[in-house]
Design brief:
It is globular, with a radius of gyration of 17 Å. It has a four-stranded parallel β-sheet, with helices on one face. The protein is an alpha/beta fold. The chain contains two helices and four strands.
Amino acid sequence: MSSTQVDRSYRVTHSYPGVLYILPSDDGEKARLARQHQLYKTLFGGRIIFFVIPFPPNSEVLDIGTGSATWLTDCRSLLPEYVQFYGIDIELKLFPAYAVNPPNTHFSVASATTLPSYWTSKFNLVNQRLLILALIKTEW
């Protein structure tokens, strides 16, 4: 019989009140989210936007549950510099470092279930994916 070592290190989790999200919010999670994004991008033939969408000046893109902002950063590389990008998540620790964000990119701590009412019809493109472990049945 062989013995197996068990990693008993603790992972950092979110601190957003009232949320039951079970995945961690640390560097290991940032790396996992980046790998996950690359996997989906590969599966979809390199596409991260699936429809032709016009992006006139003053366009805005929202990424709900942005995590480490891998999708948002990738999207930003595809669209004109005048497009404004917003990423929200329940955890600040996963966002890219402030120093590396261009002026058209904004991050804030917020829940997907309590978006401001003035955001209705505000964005040209909204991305929300892979929140199965973040929301309970009644929040869908």
